[in-house]
UniProtKB/TrEMBL annotation:
One Pfam family cited in the UniProt record for this chain: YitT_membrane
Protein name, per record: Integral membrane protein
Annotated keywords: Cell membrane, Membrane, Transmembrane, Transmembrane helix
The keyword Membrane is annotated on this UniProt entry: yes
Chief place where the protein resides: membrane
PANTHER family: UPF0750 MEMBRANE PROTEIN YITT, UPF0750 MEMBRANE PROTEIN YITT-RELATED
Membrane topology: Multi-pass membrane protein
GO CC list: plasma membrane
Length: 207
């Protein structure tokens, strides 16, 4: 394998790993302990864990695998392969951060702010590397692929808000308010980073 090939394939994978390290940290150490819902896979898993005997980690893994199937069908081979790396990295890092006894969550406003920084930067790392996180962002990427005029950041916000509204039944209106604040903060940071910095060219997806 040539040096150029290693750089072409290795650099995005390293950025994907970094992204999932950041995303998992933000969710495991700030969002989940503070019961802040965000509209993503982890928050959906938090709701299902409240309603079933299965844990948040178990639900996160099952939903992630389901989203990965959609990535394979609609987003093409390159995105799928990188999304496999992304999904397994997230599941592993989320389990690791959940297991480590680091109690960092204290005040909801601070937890939302810090989580937004870590998760927004993490999503940027993955999407800029032409990978989904094998989370609900898969559906935002599919929608943007079907209609290029759609904005991925906007679609992520719509999906998150829909899940947030459904989650209110379990976590209440206070969680909804914090969740909406988080959604706009992290997606805003992600969108700004994507507009300013594109380290790798976009790849074509299958139809």
């Amino acid at each position: 394998m040539s040096g150029a090939t290693i750089k072409r394939e290795g650099a995005p994978l390293l950025l994907i790993l970094l992204g999932n390290l950041l995303i998992a940290f933000g969710y495991a150490k700030f969002m989940v302990p503070s019961n802040i819902i965000s509209g993503g896979v982890t928050s959906l898993s938090m709701v299902l864990a409240r309603l079933t005997p299965l844990s948040v980690v178990t639900w996160t893994n099952m939903i992630t695998v389901g989203c990965l199937v959609f990535a394979l069908i609609f987003l093409g081979r390159t995105n799928f392969i990188r999304s496999i790396v992304s999904s397994f990295a997230y599941m592993g890092f989320f389990a690791l951060w959940t297991w480590l006894p680091l109690n960092l969550a204290h005040w909801p406003w601070l937890d939302v702010l810090l989580a937004s920084l870590f998760i927004g930067a993490g999503y940027y790392c993955c999407i800029a590397s032409n990978a989904s996180t094998a989370g609900l962002d898969v559906f935002a990427l599919i929608a943007a692929h079907k209609n290029p005029q759609l904005n991925v950041t906007l679609m992520l916000r719509v999906i998150n808000v829909v899940v947030l509204l459904g989650s209110t039944v379990v976590f209440g209106w206070a969680a909804l308010v914090w969740g909406l604040a988080f959604t706009f903060l992290y997606s805003g940071l992600m969108g700004w980073l994507l507009r300013r910095y594109r380290p790798f060219p976009k790849v074509k997806t299958t139809k």
